[in-house]
Amino acid sequence: MSSADAIRIDGLTHSYGETLAVGPIDLTVPEGEFLVLVGASGCGKSTLLRLIAGFEQPTGGSVLTGGAKPVPGKGAGLVFQQPRLFPWKTVGGNIELALRYAGQTVTAERVEELLARVGLHDVAKRRTWQISGGQQQRVAIARALAVENPLLLLDEPFAALDALTREKLQEDLRQVSAATGRTSVFVTHSVDEAVFLGSRVVVLTPRPGRIALDLKVGLPRSGIAADELRGLPEFAALRAEVGHAIRDRVTV
Ligand SMILES: Nc1ncnc2c1ncn2[C@@H]1O[C@H](COP(=O)(O)OP(=O)(O)OP(=O)(O)O)[C@@H](O)[C@H]1O
């Protein structure tokens, strides 16, 4: 494993009972990459993410993050489809908990700085139910960034949001990613989202999930407006390539 590899997956398989859900998969993710896993429903994207987070143990092969076996709850910042904030805490209180859990110094400045990073201002004292769903998901991302682990794992974090909010969060996450350089693995069903966010897109086959396409996305990572990016001919070409790779393998 090169020291610059954030994730290394070798001969990975995962079965639920008799059913092979994932693999075999070999995949190496260098530091700083924004990897998007995309594929049809049930192809094993979430399983693969849970294996990288250490929540599940592989039934075959190995997963290493930062050169070691992932430790559940410690190895990465995690964001799920639902924000999963603590409703009895304020917005700031939720960030404080994450900082404390990560063994970091808790200051009001640090909390504000993390919230500002995801575009939130003056909400630290509010209750989580006093902010919108999109804002709650921003808090969840800020909480994941509070963990100073370089790995960020996101499982369809924008799937439950309306289209406009989703686009705004995609745009902001792209900027956060460019600014922090965190190695990220992002799971989605959306081809558009995959190409918009990823520096690399991996398409999985229907179960068992194997790598059908592993594509480097050479689009600019910063300094370009979302509309301009989506309007590039290269964007359309990548979208078509990823879309074909998914459709070619799905029988309906
Ligand atoms: N805990 C479990 N026990 C048994 N089978 C499971 C379990 N979790 C997932 N599976 C099965 O493994 C396969 C992969 O599931 P997984 O949730 O990883 O896919 P996915 O690509 O993330 O799906 P979706 O996009 O619909 O969320 C599916 O067939 C699913 O039914």
Quick structural gist:
This protein has 252 residues and is of the alpha/beta class.
Layout of helices and strands:
Elements: E1 5-16, E2 19-30, E3 34-38, H1 45-53, E4 60-65, E5 77-79, H2 91-101, H3 108-117, H4 133-146, E6 151-155, H5 163-180, E7 183-188, H6 191-197, E8 200-204, E9 211-216, H7 226-230, H8 233-247
Parallel strand pairs: 3-7, 3-8, 5-6, 6-7
Antiparallel strand pairs: 1-2, 1-4, 8-9
Helix pairs in contact: 2-4, 6-8
The structure holds adenosine-5'-triphosphate (ATP).
Adenosine-5'-triphosphate binds at residues 16, 21, 39, 41-47, 189, 207.
Which descriptors would you attach to this protein?
24% strand, alpha/beta, binds adenosine-5'-triphosphate, 9 strands
Could you characterize what this model shows?
The protein is α/β, with parallel strands linked by helices. The protein contains 8 helices and 9 strands. The strands form 2 sheets. Strands 5-6-7-3-8-9 form a 6-stranded mixed beta sheet, with helices on both faces. A 3-stranded antiparallel beta sheet has the order 2-1-4, covered by helices on one side. A hairpin with a 2-residue loop joins strand 1 (5-16) and strand 2 (19-30). The longest helix has 18 residues, at 163-180. The mean pLDDT is 90. Adenosine-5'-triphosphate binds at residues 16, 21, 39, 41-47, 189, 207. GO terms for molecular function: ATP binding. Keywords: ATP-binding, Nucleotide-binding, Transport. It comes from Actinoplanes couchii. This is ABC transporter, ATP-binding protein. Pfam families: ABC_tran.
